[in-house]
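Notes from hallway chat w/ T.B., transcribed later so I don't forget. T.B. wanted the structure written out for a chain they're using in a teaching module, and asked if we could keep both sequence and structure tokens in one place. Agreed to drop them here.
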Amino acid sequence: DLKLEGYDYMRKWFQNIDNRWACVFYIVSFFVLAFLYGKTLGFGYIWDDDELFVYNPSLVNASSLNWHLIARPVLVDTSYFRPLVFLSWFLEFQWFGLYPAISHFINISVFYLTVLLLFHLLRHVFKGRKYVNEVSALSALIYLCHPMNVEAVAWVAGRFDVFATFFLLLAFYGFLAIPNNIIRISWVAIAYVGALGSKEIGILFLPAVFCFWVLSRHADDEPWSVVFKSFFQQNIVLLSVVFILTIAYLFVRNYYANGMNHIALTWDYVRNYYIENQIPVVSLKEYILRTILPFYDLGVFLPIEYFAQLPNKIISWIVFVLLVCVSVWSMHNRKAIIFAVFGYIIMISLVIYIVPITIANNVVQDRFLLSALPFYTVILAYAMFYLAECTSKIYTAAISGLLYILFISLVTLQLVPIWHDEMKFWYSVSYYQEKYNHEPHVMYLRSLMAYDAPREMVEDFISKERASIKETGAFRPLVFILYGQYLVNKRDPKGLDYLKEYKDLISELGDKYRADGFSKSQVYAIYYSYALGLLTMEKNIEEASRIYEAGRKYMPYENAENLSLDIMLKLLQNKNIEAKELFNELIKMKNLDREGFIKNMNDIIRDNCKANNLDIPVCLPNFDIRQLENK
């Protein structure tokens, strides 16, 4: 009897056309996702992944969870506050260890849930319309296949945007679709906190959900006042809860994240970004263009100075004026679709340089569109409904939508492999960047070093850099800092000359080093590599120790390389108790090439003992650094 009742319930459930469409969409979207992004399960960690957790062992090696571990600024010298994503990494590394496949699986899984949410959200926004299931499915598939999502989904550090977008859509759907007030308030509150804890764009929830409210409840030609008033009258308690949570978030963020913003809105910023380069207008135009034509200017880095040219400024202002005209006309004629445009602009408002931000001097960044594209799919849904109404058939709209999906999927398939590993990524970035400034990207040199590429490739990079300096006069210090590090690692004394020059420059600059374009991490790298070179090549223990200690104030975090150098210096200065403590800290690190580190340290210690004729315990013939391990 129970089996018959269960079968009868499933049969009736599946007879509902909406449920059948949901099942079909779940299956189709899963296979499309697997086709486009399944290969990312074999990708590695790249770019900011290194600084966030790979070479920053606090998350990977922490034995217990504490608030400061997940509430720290995302990167050194920033105010980005994203504890929920750091919590997800902490739990991931505790349960599974540092495995890229797991990290990528979490990213694409949450993205898949986001696509499913968008499908249901679109069905709610357009409920009652003919062909609502077909159009919602096509629109959500466009979102799934859109190339501008690749950066966020295929890159582990893109989890900030993936999580924030998921929780925002979860909150949007709960706000609009859940009838029970208690469940609705609880649902939205939890989702809103999740969005705030994932990325700063969470704070855009209220203006964005207002746009969705209008889209789902306003009938064309109806006065705006009716739907505007209903938003506040019907949601007064929920809006109050959201307001309280927002105030609490701002207070906590200000306290734990080095203030509200790490860049001040100064007159210099206004003059440079607003007046001279007009970056908010240029950036807005670039985001719109990359959204509609996602094959345009493919590449991760799009330098501001090459987009803030007069012809592009003129085009950008034309686009802006057209946008204003369309907005005024739509508001006057009471066309609800304009709130999809408003929602799109709202979701990128924090990244078009209206407020001071740092995105490596780029005019746009693809991952920031992940949370704006749902509104773009609403616009496309309107277009498909219009085509279906004009022809009285869904076929024209369906074929148009499927052709667009095919087109953008081909672009996405080209972009996803770029994120495979550091070498492929920085090679691709460098290739695209050279279109603008005719210079290979600095980080491509770092990837050559990391992958121990043939020396000829490194020297070829440096030769091109020197030729570029002669031609343009533009000098990039980081290139030669990295080159100095490379030479030190190859035990070439020329590396010490490069690094000493920059170390002396930093000493002269003092705390003003940032004004000359150096980051804290780069400054520390100069001191670390110079100290390592003194120890390995000149066997100058005293000077290496002095340089290393001078550079410690710039150290962004403790990692295996820092600890190993510190251990060697302390052992060679006969500070064995301190060295033992550091060594036992080192070997606790997960994902460490333990034997490689131990062999390298033993070799360097023996070389220094011999060169300096030292008579200390570590210089005994039978000494092995493994003897420091606590048994």
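Follow-up for T.B.: DSSP finds 30 helices and no strands in the chain. Might be a good example for the class.
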